[in-house]
Design a protein that fits this description.
- This protein has 354 residues and is mostly helical.
- Helix content is 82%, strand content 0%.
- Helix 2 packs across helix 12 and helix 2 packs across helix 17.
Length: 354
């Protein structure tokens, strides 16, 4: 009810807050797709132990798609490229035509949901697993990069960075890695030593830092006003402190902490670092979306951000638990049937041998 009232009273502030929450929450199942694929290509203990987590996390993609509908309904209030296409070059004006914007969003979600279903069906079939993961990784990389440009970079239509799609890709990958590891640590299943998962988390954090550093170096050294303005707007009105907190909390502290073998090997430390990483995604989502948005009410934006975070988080968590429980029930049925099926196969084999 709070969100509905917010859309009626102040659609712009509410839509911006809702987009911040959706980018932060929605990144988890989107990024989990590529981790799911990687587990099929890099066969280790995590392929087996984290499989239920991967299935449940990617299984909520249809729910994530449904929660994206309010953004499409109020896209003119938050995307200047859609609200005022007359000021854009012909190609950009056509690219951000409302019908084309919606069609691409539907296409992205359709591809991701199909990939998740393909990965689930390929389980236990080595050739099918490699095929689904190989083709899916290519499709995922292309669609996620384009989605990042559509949903985040287009908030500033005058700005363009050739690496922006990869930055959004690192955003969803970092968020999903932290969530999947945390879910695995909190589950009753044994997922293996923490050292390997600490290395995985550190690697995606280094990738995230590298891509942001490369964009900063290229843009600042080029000194092109339209591109430098992206950093200038995030270096004033208090955003410089949020940016500093993100840099320290997402890279400096985790990197220094994981230099310690004790931290890398301790599940509680790893769980705390995963929680910190998830929290930092909210800061990054706010930094990417809110500074260029003009005319927002600070009080309404904060209230709507809390409401959107609670609403989306509750919906997605309930969906995640439902998919996880359904998967556990299916595995229990398979476990119950498996001994009987094995006896029947052995009996048939013995009969054929005789």
């Amino acid at each position: 009810m709070t969100l509905i009232a917010g859309f009626v009273v102040d659609a712009r502030s509410t839509a911006a807050a809702y987009l911040v929450a959706w980018i932060a929450w929605g990144a988890i199942p989107i990024g989990a797709l590529v981790l799911f694929m990687t587990s099929y290509l890099v066969r280790r203990r995590w392929t087996e132990q984290l499989h239920p987590i991967f299935v449940a996390t990617t299984g909520i993609l249809p729910v994530v798609a449904l929660t994206f509908i309010p953004i499409l309904l109020f896209m003119r209030d938050i995307y200047p490229a859609i609200a005022g296409p007359a000021t854009l070059p012909p190609f950009k004006a056509g690219w951000f035509a409302p019908w084309f914007f919606v069609s691409r969003a539907v296409l992205y979600f359709g591809i991701w949901i199909a990939l998740a279903a393909w990965l689930r069906r390929a389980w236990r079939n080595d050739e099918a697993m490699v095929r689904a993961a190989s083709v899916g990784s290519i499709a995922w990389t292309l669609t996620v990069s384009l989605a990042g440009i559509d949903w985040v970079e287009s908030l500033e239509p005058e700005f363009h960075s050739s690496i922006y799609g990869l930055i959004y890709l690192s955003f969803v990958l970092t968020n999903a890695t932290a969530f999947v590891i945390a879910a695995g640590l909190l589950s009753p299943r044994r997922i293996g030593p923490s050292r390997g998962y600490s290395g995985l988390l550190l690697s995606v954090l280094l990738l995230w830092c590298y891509l942001h550093a490369m964009q900063y170096i290229v843009i600042w050294s080029g000194n092109i006003p339209k591109e430098v303005a992206w950093y200038l707007v995030r270096s004033e009105n208090g955003w410089q402190f949020v940016l500093a907190a993100l840099s320290f909390g997402q890279f400096v502290f985790p990197f220094c902490a994981m230099l310690s073998a004790r931290v890398r090997s301790h599940p509680r430390w790893l769980l705390a670092l995963c929680g910190l990483t998830l929290a930092m995604r909210w800061l990054e989502s706010a930094i990417l979306i809110l500074p260029p948005a003009h005319g927002l009410s600070l009080a309404r934006t904060v209230v709507m951000l809390l409401a959107a975070a609670l609403f989306q988080g509750l919906v997605l968590w309930l969906a995640f638990e439902a998919v996880l429980e359904r998967g556990a029930a299916e595995r229990a049925i398979v476990a119950a049937i498996w001994p009987q099926a094995r006896v029947e196969r052995e009996t048939r084999s013995a009969g054929q041998g005789q």
